[in-house]
Specification:
With 123 residues, the protein is mostly beta strands. It is built from no helices and eleven strands.
């Protein structure tokens, strides 16, 4: 089984919104941090938002005030993105840590990664 599976990506106009969802299963740890990252070809992967087992969250400066990360009753980790900008375009990845880490946007602290879902923001 795939430990992490993203969904919700697509094409949206600037100023619009998207909800990305991450389903996590069969992970090695009962408690862990889940983060969302994005990447454009030729650029480094950028942390967007993360939430840990205690409900603590952290956001990148580029999306602060426009993003919200949360968990639902089904165990999914959702990323709500509002007022989307062209620079929000990229492949979005869901990732989880191998232990109960505090919310972090440092990519190397994450051990499991999904396959990604593409987000394109353009008019």
């Amino acid at each position: 089984q795939v430990p992490l599976a993203e969904s919700g990506g697509g094409s949206v106009q600037p100023g619009g919104s998207l909800i990305l969802s991450c389903a996590a299963s069969a992970l090695a740890y009962s408690r862990y941090c889940v983060g969302w990252f994005r990447q454009v070809p030729g650029k480094e992967r950028e942390g967007v938002a993360a939430i840990d087992s205690r409900g603590q969250t952290t956001y990148a400066d580029s999306v602060r005030g426009r993003a919200a990360i949360s968990k639902d009753n089904a165990g999914n980790t959702n990323l709500y993105l509002d007022n989307l900008k062209p620079e929000d375009t990229g492949m979005y990845y869901c990732a989880s840590t191998r232990g109960d880490l505090d919310a972090t946007l440092i990519a190397w602290k994450y051990g499991y990664w999904g396959q990604g879902t593409q987000v394109n923001v353009s008019s």
